[in-house]
Every structure is written in structure tokens, then in C-alpha cells.
Amino acid sequence: MSADLAEGESRLLYPPPGLPPGGDGPAQAGPADEDLRVVAARHPGRWIATAVVGVLLAMVVSSLVTNDRWEWDVVARYLTWPSILEGAWATVRLTATASVVGFALGTVLALMRLSRSPLLQAVSWAYTWVFRSVPLLLQLLLWYNLAYLYPVLSLGIPFGPEFLFFDTLDLIDKFWAAILGLGLSQAAYSAEIVRAGILGVDQGQHEAAASLGIPRHRQVRRIILPQAMRSIVPTAVNEVIGLLKGTSIVYVLAYGELFYIVSVIYGRNGRVVPLLIVAAIWYLALTTLITVVQYYVERHYAKGALRTLPPTPVQRVRWEIQVGWSRLTGAPVPDGVPPAFAARVRVGRWVAPRGGAA
Amino acid sequence: MTGGLLEIRGVHKSFGLLEALRGVDLTVRPGEVAAVIGPSGSGKSTLLRAINHLEKVDRGFVSLDGELIGYARHGNTLRELTEREILRRRTRIGFVFQNFNLFPHLTVLENVVEAPIYAQGRPRAEAEAEARELLARVGLADRADARPRQLSGGQQQRVAIARALALRPAVVLFDEPTSALDPELVGEVLGVIKELAGTGTTLVVVTHEVGFAREIADTVVFMDEGVVVEQGPPDAVLDNPASDRTRAFLEKVL
Ligand SMILES: Nc1ncnc2c1ncn2[C@@H]1O[C@H](COP(=O)(O)OP(=O)(O)O)[C@@H](O)[C@H]1O
Ligand SMILES: [Mg+2]
Fold this sequence. Notes:
The structure holds two protein chains of two kinds.
Chain A: H1 2-13, H2 44-66, H3 72-79, H4 82-114, H5 118-133, H6 136-144, H7 146-149, E1 152-156, E2 162-167, H8 168-171, H9 174-199, H10 203-211, H11 216-246, H12 258-269, H13 272-301, H14 313-329, H15 339-347
Antiparallel strand pairs in A: 1-2
Helix pairs in contact in A: 3-13, 4-5, 4-9, 4-11, 4-12, 5-9, 6-9, 9-11, 10-11, 11-13, 12-13
Chain B: E1 6-15, E2 18-28, E3 33-37, H1 44-51, E4 59-64, E5 67-68, E6 71-74, E7 77-80, H2 83-90, E8 93-96, H3 108-118, H4 124-137, H5 153-165, E9 171-175, H6 183-197, E10 202-206, H7 210-216, E11 219-224, E12 227-232, H8 234-239, H9 244-253
Parallel strand pairs in B: 3-10, 3-11, 8-9, 9-10
Antiparallel strand pairs in B: 1-2, 1-4, 4-5, 6-7, 11-12
Helix pairs in contact in B: 3-4, 3-5, 4-5, 5-6
The site of adenosine-5'-diphosphate (ADP) has 11 residues of chain B, from β2 and α1.
């Protein structure tokens, strides 16, 4: 029987011309090759797990809806409150500026650390050591109090005459104190990320670039960094998301970012939980945005590392619709849809086994 | 293309306590094809890298048409050149690596034009036209827009050869160009090198393919333990080796 079945199956897959497929019933007429369907395997374990998780999820949702202490009406009202929007925008500005400062300086520090000059190496090492060791909160307060150390900042020739003078209090307001604190400490972490990325690039790439006589700065910018980006980007995005949430620490400077604004409002009206939810929703939304950007940035740097790029979610949805449509209407699948994709969509369809042996 | 005169004199190179090169002397005349053979670890790669100044030598010197590669000579002192100057002189030497070392994130065409444009300052249009000619010469005219990982090993190595030739080098160094390839792909790469051998460019080819060495080389150089043991025309070195070490090596590989 089992040998029979195995033979029948193989014939089902590759029916020799002129022979009816399936060895079980002569009554069964042989379908043409193109009528053969792929039958997906069943996964009972997966279904049970799905059911368990589904129930848990329903419980969470139900408690969110039925417990009126969440005060969703308050949440909804404050979600787009003008000062909340301003706070969210301030958070975005802080995150973006501190990320740029952090990664620009971090890249410089990484290149210093990898340079052949012992002094540059030592300075880079010491920078990372100091800025990684001192708590961020403490750094922020120190920068904010810079005017106490240096009431006037000036531009001039080192150890020589000075000609441009600035009042420190004017120059370093709350925003710039926050940027200095966040950006400079971020640079210490970014430096390590960028350095690891550069070290991850195959030594042969450095040698090939050098053997071609390509100028040093061009080797770094064109050959090494783009390849390093592939391993830098995922970690870097983690850092940016950390920074986004980390900006809430700036509330100690009473700077009007999202968390500070929220705490001011609930200090006045006592609706603590709903306002915290408002802030959480905004952080969630902004993180989602960063994650979407990450997807496309990673895809960009995957060029060359992969033989073919995976489709974007947008392409995937479009092809899914196109394939679905042609299945419904019987129209041919449009040209742009990759055959592998069209085939994979078809696999999901359940087709009753023929012949009755199974 | 006119080939360069390559002179290697008394070159020593150590890695820690290990002496990889212990006094190598070799002259390769303009347009000559030298095949370097020898057991693994005998210093063949180190010698090629020293010629290109990828490896700084401890003693001795390498010169191309009388110009020292990493140094300027002032009387009896050798002064090391700045990195910029070394990079400029390196553009006279093409290097083809065992593992191709193509830039995977750039297209084939971008790989080939990078150095002519940014190391030699040639106009992009001219560099691209010449790159397409070179790609046609190695049989890859239609793959200019592909990326290296989309090509077979043999195709990648042919792109690497085109990339090295794009500098219009006086000397091209090959470090075991076929030993990372599947056997059926070896022929296409050797074919390209063979064609190059007739064009007047000086070639130094480190190879395991003794038959190929016999076919294309004017001189076969046998290295062992960091020195040149024997050198001469292929039939002399390969058929009647003067040294027992050469004979022992040839018995093993043939
Ligand atoms: N960068 C390096 N550091 C330490 N040892 C090295 C290095 N490069 C080569 N060597 C050693 O030098 C010797 C010669 O190596 P190599 O020139 O690669 O030989 P071949 O190419 O003839 O096989 C070997 O013993 C090798 O291990
Ligand atoms: Mg070698």
C-alpha cells in the first residue's frame, strides 16, 4: 500500500504523458498538467498557538475598552492639543539634531581611532571613555551651567589674540544645552558602532582600493563606508530610537519637549494616566516612522550584498492585489509580477486532495 | 600599452620573527611575462604585495622604470613617500587578487571607472568609453550594469582584470588569479591573461597552473622559503630544473 501511494504521488507530481495520474481509481479522469494544484501542508500546532494568543489579545482589548479609568476621551482630546503637537515637534527636532551631531562626530571619532596617529587614537579613546562614563543627566546640567565656568566664549588664534566674543548664556540656550548633552554623548556610542562597521568590511576591500591608487578620503567615502553602513544602520536606528525616548530626560532643563509639556499639563489638571498615554502614543508613532525609514535605508545599502532585493511592502501589496484580481476574474497575471511571487500566492490556497487515498 | 622594467633588489620582509622574504632579486624586462611558482607559504604573495608597496619592505628596494615604488632616493638614503605620492605611483601597477576583491556595492562599470576617474583624474566620459572597451575585451560587454555578486567567479575575475587594466598600467601583478575558481571557470580567466601576454604589458603571474606557466611565460621563477631558488625559460626550469628543491616541487604538482 505504502509503495503504491508513493508511486501514485510521484505520478501526481510528474504525470507521464498519456497516463492518468494517481493509481487509485480508473474512474478518475487525468487532469491536464496545468490543472495541478499545490497543496499547502497543515500545521495544527500553529492553529492552537494562534487561538491562545487570540484569546489573550481579546482580553487585553476588552479591558482597555471596558475600564473607563483609561479616560480615552481625555486621551483623544489631548492627542492633537496644540502644545502637545509643539512638544512632539520639539522632540523630533531634538532627536534629529542630536542624531546628526552624534553620528557626524561619531564617524570622525571612529576614523581617528582607526588612523595611524597615536595621538588621534588616544584622543578618540579618551573621548569615548569620558562621555560614556558620565551620566547623561549630569552632562546636561553641566552644559546648561557652562556659563558659570566660561561667562564669555570667544573666537581667536589659539593662545593669541581673540576677536569674536559671545555671551555664553545667549549662545547656549536650553535647546543647544540639550543638543550638546545628547549629541556629544551619542557620539561616544556612535563612534563604536561606526568603528565596528568599518572593521566588518573585508580587508580585501581596503587593499583593492589602495592598490588602485584611489585617494584616501575617496576610499573611505566611496568604498568602505557604504559597505560598513549595512551593519551600521540597524544598530544606529536602535540608537536613534533610544535617543528619541532619551530626549524626555531634557525635561530637567524645563525645555518644552513632549514629556515636559505632558507633565506640565497633568500637573495642572491631574489627568496623569491619560496624558502619559498621549505621550506614549506619540512616541509610538514617531518610532514607527523611524522603523519605516529604516526599512528603506537598509534596502538601499543591501544593494550588491544581495543578488536580488526583496520586494518592498508596497510592491508586495500591489502584487498581491494583482494576483488576487486575476484569480477572481481569470485575467492573465500582469507582466510586472515576478513569477516566483505569483506562484507563492497560489500555494496558500487549499485544494481538496484527489483520489481519496489521503 | 608599453610595459615597464621591474627591478627587485635584495628585498627582505619579516612578520614578527617569521622571515617571509629573505633577499629576493628579480628583474622583469619590459613586456616580459614572468610566472612565479613555488610551494604555499614560500612568500609569493608577499613579494607581489611588496612590489605594489601594499607591504613595506624591511630591506632592499623595488623599482619600476628606475622609479622606486615607496621611496624617493637621495644619495644613499631612501625617504618614504607620502601616502598620496605612493597612491599615485601605484596607478602604474595593476593588481589582480585571488579573491577578486571587486567592490560589491558598485556596478561592474563603476568598479572599472573608479580608479581612472578618481586616482588618475581622467574625464568620466573617456573613462567610461574605455571601460566598455575593456569589458568587451574580457567578454563582458553586456554585464556593465550588473553587480559583482550577480556574476560567476570567472566573470568576476575577468571584471577584476578589466579594472586593473583601466589604469593603463605598465605592470600587472596576478596573485593566483584562478585558485578561487571552480575548475570549469579557470579556462576563461587564463584565456584573458594569455591574450594580455601578447600586448607588451609586463606581467608577473603567481600561479599553480604549471601548464599555463609553460604556455605563456617567458621566464619561470621558482620561489621557496622566501628566496628565488631558480629562474629561466619555461623548458629549462620546468623540464630540467637545476635545483633539487625545484624538482621536488614539480614532482608534487605535476
Ligand atoms: N600579514 C602577515 N602577517 C604575518 N605573517 C604573514 C603575513 N602575510 C604572510 N605571512 C606569512 O609569510 C609567509 C609567506 O606568505 P605568502 O607570501 O602568503 O606565501 P605564498 O603566497 O607563497 O603562499 C607565510 O608563512 C605566511 O604565513
Ligand atoms: Mg599566496
